[in-house]
Structure formats: structure tokens, C-alpha cells
Amino acid sequence: MFFRRLTSVIAFCHLALMVPTNAQDIGRETAQDDFDLDRFAFAPGISVSPDIPTPESYLGYELGTQYTLYADVVGYIRAVTEASDRISMHEYARTYEDRPLHYLIITSPNNHARIETIRENNLKLADPSLSAAEASDLISSQPVIPWLSYNVHGNEPSSTEAAMQVIYQLAANQDAATLELLDAAVVIIDPTINPDGRDRYVYWYRSMQSHVLNQNRADIEHSEPWPGGRTNHYWFDLNRDWVWLVHPESRGRLEAYGNWLPQIHVDYHEQSANSNYFTMPGQTPRNLNLPDEYEPWAEVFGQANARAFDEAQINYFTRESFDFFYPGYGSSYPSNLGAIGMLAEQGGGSGSARAVETDDAVDWV
Where is 148: in which H helix or E strand? Predict the structure, then answer.
């Protein structure tokens, strides 16, 4: 039951990564606002609180139609935090370029009222000296804790847009399923791990983008110049720094992570536009230091994601790529700290811009 709650949380959040969306009816020169966002309408028909600002009402555009500057991302999540009793916002570090890094705790008001007890009990569950009977007693009254990390590679920008959508839905939804989820889970969201790299890409892209939706791969907006936005200020790949902790983004994040030790960690990325969606499990060989429980639980979460994708008619693949051999990825290092580390990859990348024609002649928006 403990992990079954988690599978529904992760499937819920994975579908949000489909922002931007897949549209097959966009012409070579399409007006900027002619995005087909209806196919992947997020949580259609669910009643939402009017007190929570939507991303569109704050940003002035619908998610998926523009890339958002990091200052506006922070402004939006702060506005939602101030409007909601389900969210608290915590700064954990500053980047070299002095951008603040935050994680959000999203759960029910009742859980927020005892959040420190929940955190302390969760750390007890990670203590190997705890007896099975003591662990069972704690689990029976303890919400599960998933940690969702977005945009460690700055020029894989759709995940931060998706994070804002997930944050909004968890704050605003009034349906029974969301309320049950918030009682059963303390969801921790890091909306942008690498804001220096993200803004490097977004500022460049906004200066290059056409005023019509242009999916021609030969156009300049699909050709990000060196050094690109993948890395942080010092051009270091932060998805290789989980073990070494060379950079302030990593040191602050791991200190915060260690204060919670969640049961699951999901690392959200983009891959080639000619790919669709990757979900767990990944390819072999695995690092032999991964716990024995890792493999079967990766399969459980992967199957749950697959069912959600099948229902939404989204193409995906598993096992064909993405190793879990190097222990310093965001998808592997947490597994050595007692979590189930997972990777999610959306088709896109910096060469996709807002829309691109793939080898299959499908316009990926």
C-alpha cells in the first residue's frame, strides 16, 4: 500500500511533462497562438479553486507556448505558495549567478501541521537498526514522500514548464483523487535545478525565435550556439555532480535531500526530438551497488507509467537506452540512499525550440 500510493503520484506527474505537446496539424508558418494544446489537456473537467492563480493568469501566456524566464518561474511559484495552504517554499542554495534555488513541500494542511514529525519519522525509516515491527507501525501513519527534480540540464526546458503545471494542479484541484493523494503523500518539488543554464538558453531562444511557429530544423532558433544551456555557470553538467558535490547547486540540494530521504526520486529530462518518451526501467547493465529491491520496484513504477501513457495514447519506450551504471546521476544516486531513483525523458531538447518537424514528419510542439 505504501508504494502503491507513490505509483499514482508519479504517473500523475509524468503526464504533465507532455508540455509542450504533440500536434500534427501545424503548417510551415503558423501564427504564434495557434498551438494545439487540447490533446493533452491536463486534468480536464476537474474542479479547481479560483483562489489559486493559474500559470496563464500570472505569466500572460499558456504553458507550452513560450519558455519562461526563471525569475518569472520563481514569481509564479511564490504567488501559488502565498495563495495555498497546501504549499510551503524553501530556499536551499544560490547559484554562482545568485539565482535562488527552491524546493516546495506540497501536501494537505493536516500534514503541514505535523510536517516536522513526518520528516523525523521518515528519517527513522531509513535507519537500518529500526526493527520490522517499529517500521510497520511508522508506515501505517506516515505519508509517502516522493521528490521530483526538474531541469538539471538547462536547455531541456519543458520540464520546468511542466513543474509549474503540476504545482498548480496540486494546489488548486478539488477532486477526491487529488485530496486523497495530498493526504497520502508529501510531494517535494524542485522546479529548476539549473536556473543559470536554463536562463542562458531561454534568453538566447527568445532573442532568436520567430513570430510565427517555425518547425524547420534549419532555422536558427533550432541551432543553439556553444556553450549552450545544458551546464551551469562554469559549464559543468550538474547531473554528474550528485556524488562529488563540487558546485553550490548540488551541495545545497543534497543537504536538503538528506534532511528528508524520500522513498522515490524522479529526474525529468528531454531527449532527441525524434524520440517520444522514455520511462522506467532503463537498459542494463546496472550498477551492482544498487539495492536488490531496485529492479522490481523500477518495474512497478514503469508499468504504472505505461498504463497512464496508454490511456492518454502517448508513445513511449523502455529498456532501450539510459544506463544506471554510473552512480552519480539523479536517477541512480538516490537509489544508493534508499529511494527508487527514476528517469523520465520527453522528446525535445534545445534543437526542438517550440516546434520541430521530426524524421516521421510529425510536428513536435
Answer: strand 146-150
Angle between helices 2-16 and 176-184 (to 10 degrees): 120
Render pLDDT for 299-356 as a digit per residue (tens, 0 to 9): 999 999 999 999 888 889 998 888 888 888 999 999 989 899 999 999 888 888 888 8
DSSP β-ladder status, 363-364 and 340-348: unpaired
Q: Are 307 and 346 in contact (CB under 8 A)?
A: no
Structure pTM? 0.91
Quickly count: other Cβ atoms within 10 Å of residue 180's Cβ: 13
- Exposed, middle or buried, 242 (CB in 10 Å: 0-12/13-18/19+)? buried
Q: Regarding the domain delimited by 2-364, which CATH topology (the fold level of the hierarchy) does it fall under?
A: Aminopeptidase (3.40.630)
Q: Which of 334, 170, 347, 201 is nearest to 269 (CA)?
A: 347
8 Å CB contact between 318 and 280: yes
CA distance 53 to 185: 23
Tell me the DSSP string of 96-120. Answer: TT--EEEEEEE--HHHHHTHHHHHH
> Is residue 286 very low, low, confident or very high in pLDDT (cuts 50, 70, 90)?
confident
From residue 147, give the alpha-carbon distance in Å to each of 73, 260, 334: 19, 9, 10
- Categorize the per-residue pLDDT at 64 as very low, low, confident or very high, splitting at 50, 70 and 90: confident
Could you tell me what percent of the chain has a pLDDT over 90? Answer: 65
- Find out whether 59 and 27 touch, Cβ atoms under 8 Å: no
pLDDT grade for 42, boundaries at 50, 70 and 90: low
Is the Cβ–Cβ distance between 85 and 110 less than 8 Å? no
Those residues with Cβ within 8 angstroms of residue 317's Cβ, 6 or more apart along the chain or in another chain: 275, 276, 277, 278
Task: Tell me the DSSP string of 250-288.
Answer: HHHHHHHHHTT--SEEEEEEEEETT--EE-S--PSPBPT
